[in-house]
Amino acid sequence: MAEQTRNLAIIPARGGSKRIPRKNIKLFLEKPIIAYSIDVAAKSGLFDTIMVSTDDNEIAGIAKNYGASVPFLRSAETSNDQATTIAVLKEVIMLYAKHDTTFDNICCIYPCAPFITRKALEETFSLLKQGQADTIFPVVRYGHPIQRALKKQGNYVSMIDEQNMTVRTQDLEARYHDAGQFYWLTSDALHMKGSLITDKSIGFEIDENETQDIDNDTDWRLAEMKYTLLHTNIKN
To answer: In Å, what is the CA distance from 93 to each residue of 90, 160, 173, 202?
Structure first.
């Protein structure tokens, strides 16, 4: 009998958010925003363990109350403003390994991503299981072709790439950006390539209405309104 695949969800949530203080546990509608990430991971049924990587005891307590585990606190090295997501993931895997616990696949789920759906987690994991990718994550198509981007010099604007001035927008190739929600990756890819985007990464396209950058208070209010609209009479 084949050995069962073991999956780990890591939710990185340090306490030192600058633009929105205590962002990771700020109430989003009726509950701390991190609770949405924990909840969707749990409802997916994909994970052997759902853990929160944090340096903050209050965040740890809230995470536990909503069903996540916090087996250890994050180090000072991975808690500063310069720490990368990859560094956080590697630290978590290393600490689990010290306790003889290993995982085949990892899903890094950001704590401020209430628009993640169970369906997206399931479909992207299904793609990962096919063995054709190191990493898989949601992407969103730019609303307007970036090939027609402008730059400003003083009060004047000009095309960054003038050869696209006369090209019809519908004839320009679509471009995408990272939705900033979650990343599936194999443990082998984490150890061998150490990047969330490799030469074998798959972008799983989602609608622009299914994501929202939350970098300031206005973004936060917009996200709450969008979430409310999307979830009126809809169950994911």
So the answer is: 5, 43, 39, 23
Give the pTM.
0.93
pLDDT in tens, 91-134: 999 999 999 999 999 999 999 999 999 999 999 999 999 999 99
Question: Cα–Cα distance between 220 and 42 in angstroms, integer?
Answer: 24
What are the structural domains, with CATH classification, of the chain?
Answer: 7-142+177-230 (3.90.550.10)
Kindly report each contact of residues 49-53 with a partner whose C-beta sits within 8 Å and lies 24 or more positions away, as own/partner. 49/8, 49/9, 49/103, 50/9, 50/11, 51/8, 51/9, 51/10, 51/11, 51/92, 52/10, 52/11, 52/12, 52/13, 52/111, 53/10, 53/11, 53/12, 53/13, 53/78, 53/88, 53/91, 53/92
